[in-house]
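Technical note accompanying the year-one report. For the benefit of new consortium partners, we illustrate the data format agreed upon in the data management plan: each record pairs a sequence with a structure-token string. No post-processing was applied to the example shown here.
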Amino acid sequence: MPHWTQLVADKKQRQLKSIPQEWLVSPPPDSTLDVTSFPETCGLLTAREIEITNTSVDVLLEKLACGEWTAVDVTTAFYKRAVVAHQLVNCLTEIFVDRALARAAELDDHFKQTGKVVGPLHGLPISLKDQLCIKGLETTMGYVSWIGRYAEKNTVLVDILIESGAVPFVRTNLPQTVMWPESFNNIFGRTTNPHNRSLTPGGSSGGEGALLALKGSPLGVGSDIGGSIRIPSSFCGLYSLRPSYGRVPYCGALNSLEGQDSVHSVFGPMTNSVGGVKAFMKAVVNAKPWLKDPLAVRKKWHEDEYNLADHGSGKDLCFAIMWDDGVVVPHPPIRRSLEITKAALEKAGHKGFSCITLLLNYAHLAIVVDWKPIKHRLLADTTRSIWNAASSEDYMMTTSATGEPIIATMELDDSDATATPFRPKKIGITAYQLWQAQKLRRDIRKEYLDHWEATSSKTGTGRPVDAIICPASSYAATPHGKNRYTNYTTVWNALDYPATTFPVTTVDPTLDAKKPRRVFYDDFDKGIHEMYDPEIFKNAPVCLQLVGRTLEEEAIIKMTEIVDGALAAAK
């Protein structure tokens, strides 16, 4: 077998040849950090293609359904912009232009002959994380050992998207093992954040995040086992959804830790509008995925749940704001985004009270109803114990075929590498120890359920809290290799609570000046505080999460629309 570096060189060469030569541009120098405006000024896209790629999913689907725009035109526009994005931030893995355009042409022919759309996603280009197999294409998932493995059939979700009329058109970058909150591997290299290329786009769905931030795709599919949809969405300023286990089919996709059947990875949408989240979920669950995936939940889209039948029909909603998780206090821009959201909701007439540990004495919290996030540290640590029971062996077995090194850091310079709490130790745990970790997680889930139910005595609505609004991370997008804390997302995976992300603001060095703190939870919390420099994080997007309860996808999508509307009205 050739040396692993030779396999990489060949794969990279094949990727380069897959890009139409006429779509190659001259990217700005590395010193240009914000490249979000470049796709529209580089001269490759026509005015109409710029219009198409700036259009939200809802409007795209309307124009495709009435025949105003063709699937070929829409796919071509997004493909050109995706290729430009790739040249800026290195976000793509598989590029298959002819195949995607042939699919789009089939959809256009169907529409011309019948006057009808194929399905609810007719003509919509959709980007896919490099875990979702497409028949006839390689899926490496960032592993050199998987170069040359061509899929014999589609992942179930890909089949459903195609049956719904979508056009899969690119696959996107991710980290080796997928168990990193950044995006770097030995084949395709590092993906950067288009808002500031010195910062990470997050991970593990970082290729999707970067591509969507440059509007090189209208809708992407990421995966999330500990935050891998929500972290890149928050770092790149996107809307997204981490659904409950089994709501979106996973069958046939590649993954790490296969056989770990406690804290599941899930697929979900990433997009530039909350309407895109709804369109994806409604199309997928109405396709009856449980008939194709034995682990898919038998639950179609419920319009009454979307209309908040279990939440007072959307009147007098009570949102709980979690200012910190009792482990790490977020940086000033995150704090400010929570304050902006709280003020917007109160202005809109919704009740808002805050979940907070009383470590810090902020004067304006005197009127806040106290909610302590319970056992978040223990819950996240237990989740990592479950993942890491045999993850080192899993990675070793996968990489052994070629001898590629297992990546130990996302730092630009290995000499700066610092141990991260989410990476596995070399020695796993016994089956009995694993059972105890799973039992502990089960018990905490019950405790958290009871805790949430008990809030009905505090809300004034007669119901428990309708949703929690909280940070998606303790910081905005970090410099490469510095994203070391994921508990703000991981706990909701452990509890199997669905969660969306939504954009609020961007880092402003004037408004988000570093503030001194005298008290810290521990040295790790202190380290996170000390890494903050508003100039380094300048202009980075700031997003929050909205969290509901298990299988409440319809409701949290609606509540995210309400919060998004309140934020827009308050501007």
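Partners are asked to follow this layout when depositing records. Residues 431-453 form the longest helix (23 residues).
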